[in-house]
Amino acid sequence: MTKKALLLFGFIALKFILHYFLISPEYDLHRDEYLHLDQGRHLDWGYISVPPFTAWVSKLILLLGNSVFWVKFFPALFGALTIYIVWKTIESLNGSLFSLILGSVCILFSAILRLNILYQPNSFDVLSWVTFYYIVIRYIQTQKSKWLFIGAFAFALGFLNKYNIIFLLIGLLPVFLLTKHRVVLSKKQLCWSLLLAILVVTPNLLWQYNNHFPVVHHLKELAATQLVNVDRFDFLKHQLLFFIGSFFVIISGLVGLLCYKPFKPYRLFFFSFFLTLFVFMYFKAKDYYAIGLYPIYIAFGAVVLGEWLKTGWKKYLQPVTIALPLLLFIPVYNIAFPNKSPNYILEHPEPYKKFGLLRWEDGKDHTLPQDFADMQGWKELAQKVDSVYTKIPDPQHTLILCDNYGQAGAINYYTQQKIQAVSFNADYINWFDLTQKHKNLIRIKEADGSQTELKETSPFFTTASIAGTITNPNAREFGTTIFVFTGAKMDINGRIKVEIKQYKDYLKE
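^ thats the sequence. predicted structure below, dont judge the formating
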């Protein structure tokens, strides 16, 4: 094994090892992870919340045993592949061994490490961005048509993972067309590659069409409830924090794209960088949506610094340059990861508040970062529902109806019983089993909606009671209440069909 191969293997191994030491045992899985895992039980070409790629991975996780190990393995794998693609990019740009090490260190000790601890589409989204950029570079270098087809497939796969990759195209395509590279438009292979991309994404587009484009409703709801609270200045500030240890490398890459002669063929990337950021800011996108933009510029920067620091006294700066991303990442590591217990954060809120980590999507400060609060209380909920379920007469005819997808997904993941919780929220709206008659109801209500549940629902059942609540004060679900209703006096399935129709009509608006 060559020195380069050994180093690359070392970085990838370190990447996997780190991911099993970044989350304190006090935390459960994240609410989004439960939804994505349940999608693996209901394979389709589309979902209300995300495109289908994550569900395919979830199916594989199910086949592998559905353990937390595999849930955490795949985002770590996508992060490791991101390091690999950056490595290959630096090699294609004739970067030195120092450049390869610097680029890998910068990717490893950045916000990507934080992103990769959660099983969400974001990890593969970043990988999709850097892979597509790498393919563009390889096409510029070789002018070989095979890269057009590889790029078309890579973009389509990224699209089937997360529609966020459209921002890449918006930021790159106009600049591409304004340069000499637009000559690619005259190649018939481009048409065939575009056809390939269209064929790959068409099943998902047809699913969106047949379901009245729920992605449009999702975007409107996102804009009204979350993006409205996005501050554009905070967006830019967080871009710096995401790559604080490698910011100087990114700047070096941008300067190199203008000044470093071997980079002249890639100058379009300089203008594309700012156009893409502008588009993100214009639409008030969440700050982490733009993370996929940076790895390719780290590759450019690593090559430039490798050239600038290779001779004379400057070569002695190489170890310092490599150490800097790690040293600057240490304070980020101390607050950006759920590696401290909730009680520790409650006792030391200052650094979290200083960096805006206690600010949730509602625009308000809370006691824990939102992602951390979303990793609390789920096991407690599932255990209490299991306990209630075993005590109900005729439990196999019991409907478990939740207020949100996190509750339903967590119950389905942790339950020791043969039950399937559902919700009129997100993709669960399509997963109700109405083939059997439901006689009993276990109703999971969020704290702010639980006060009137007994009064409103008990008239339709013989018995009604409160079976428990989520008592973990650090959980976002704190106060969520478990209601039990037995002996239905009405056709529950009929009422469910009405609710499903109302929700689907709402999605059409």
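Residues 240 and 348 are 24 Å apart (CA to CA).
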